[in-house]
Write a structure and sequence with these properties.
This protein is an alpha/beta fold. The protein has 14 helices and 16 strands. It is globular.
Length: 422
């Protein structure tokens, strides 16, 4: 029997029921949920967040915030919570021990077995998760938008999502990731966390991380791979559109910048918290649950603005290294060096004063103007894919606009189910 082992040696959670069980759901109280909650239901049910089986109760939240571990001692860094307005809890008459049916976009998505209804101070939750209560931090702003009460309990997916193109090409559950790695005969897999279109600096980081992860593995029989696991979730105006991220990352392999047998692209449904060090720990846990053995961490990992120092995430990972089931690969920033005539890394290049950093602002202006950048900045094929995806999916722009948000095709659809409501 195939084994599927994730974070802290725990079996990958699998709380998915086969389609077609409308009869079991009839008469249950139905509660609609927003997109963010629907995404986390999917991730919880398929085991992306192993060992969590559902939304956290008070004990789990307190242990995560105060000890950075679950009550059983398993390393965990970010609360995963279900929030609901107090008036809604009263309206529905909810109590601990109830089981309800959760609905998204007019269709049932999951059963929710509630075991705890509780309050939590959002200032405290913010400060312990993000190290700040400043509402300018997007994670703090998100936390303060919670609706007042929290409900803990296990979720069971009853309606599996059907992903639309181009997402369907890149969707894999944790178990499917592990199966794919076994089929490829990869023994070492290094994860690359991204929510960006790749420039040559990103490409070089992945190649540097591949060599680090390969360690003492043979080179004549490739057994080390790179998993580019894109984060697909909340979008703000000015972000790269999701379709561009996936298609351009995949283009690096399609056009030979990575060998076919060392590179693959998938995605996880997750809204970035920008929690810096704590989110780095979360990313390490997430990619462990996908079967990765290594994870690259560069400068400002999961940071935002000036809330964290450049290598805070790496420092926290070092502190908790013994509790991780994955090996961090630490990298400094890449730049283009005119003296070396190549993309190189700050840890080895001695021409710091002549270094040309990869400017996100410059790249955005280039892509906005539709002017093909030099090969030193972005592969020409990647640029072409950016422009095509802008035309096909982005209403003419590779960046999120209000028009894109209003007209984009859903990432996934749920099967319509005839369920008698309470």
């Amino acid at each position: 029997m195939t084994s599927y082992v994730g974070h802290n040696g725990k079996t990958i959670v699998d709380r998915v029921e086969a389609d077609g069980r409308e009869g079991r759901l009839g008469g249950m109280l139905t509660i609609p949920v927003r997109r963010e909650i629907a995404h986390e239901i999917i991730s919880l049910s398929y085991g992306f967040f192993t060992p969590l089986e559902g939304f956290m109760n008070r004990e789990q939240v307190e242990s995560t915030l105060n000890e950075m571990e679950l009550p059983d001692g398993t390393l965990w860094s970010i609360p995963i919570v279900f929030d609901l307005a107090p008036e809604k809890i009263s309206e529905y008459g909810l109590r601990s021990g109830d089981e309800v049916l959760l609905e998204y976009d007019g269709s049932p998505i999951a059963r929710f077995s509630m075991d705890d209804i509780f309050d939590y101070n959002t200032d405290e939750m913010s400060e312990k998760t993000y190290g700040t209560k400043d509402l300018k931090h997007p994670g703090v702003k998100r936390t303060h938008s919670y609706q007042g009460k929290f409900i803990g309990g296990k979720v069971t997916l009853v309606n599996e999502p059907k992903f639309n193109p181009p997402y369907d090409r890149f969707w894999m559950t944790p178990k499917q990731h592990i199966d794919a790695f076994r089929k490829k005969k990869w023994k070492h897999i290094v994860a690359h966390q991204t929510r960006n279109v790749p420039h040559t600096g990103h490409e070089a980081l992945m190649k540097q991380a591949w060599f680090a992860a390969n360690e003492d593995m043979p080179v004549d029989q490739i057994r080390t791979g790179i998993l580019v696991n894109a984060i697909i979730g909340e979008k703000r105006v000015g972000d790269y559109i999701d379709e561009s991220i996936l298609l351009t990352q995949d283009a690096l392999r399609q056009y030979g910048y990575f060998r076919e047998d060392v590179h693959m692209v998938t995605f996880t449904l997750w809204d970035m918290r920008y929690a810096g060090p704590r989110e780095a720990i979360f990313h390490a846990i997430l990619r462990t649950n996908l079967g990765c053995t290594h994870h690259m961490f560069g400068r400002d990992h999961a940071g935002v603005g000036n809330f964290y120092r450049p290598y805070d995430a790496q420092d926290l990972l070092k502190q908790y290294r013994e509790k991780l089931s994955i090996k961090p690969v630490f990298l400094m920033e890449n730049w283009y060096c005119p003296e070396c005539a190549e993309v190189t890394n700050a840890s080895v290049c001695g021409h710091e004063k002549k270094a040309q950093n990869f400017s996100g602002t410059l790249l955005r202006s280039i892509l906005t103007d539709g002017v093909k950048p030099t090969k030193k900045v972005m592969r020409p094929e990647v640029f072409d894919v950016v422009m095509k995806s802008a035309s096909d999916y982005g209403v003419g722009s590779p960046f999120v606009t209000e028009k894109y948000l209003a007209s984009r095709r859903p990432i996934f659809n749920l099967r319509k189910m005839e369920v008698q409501k309470a």
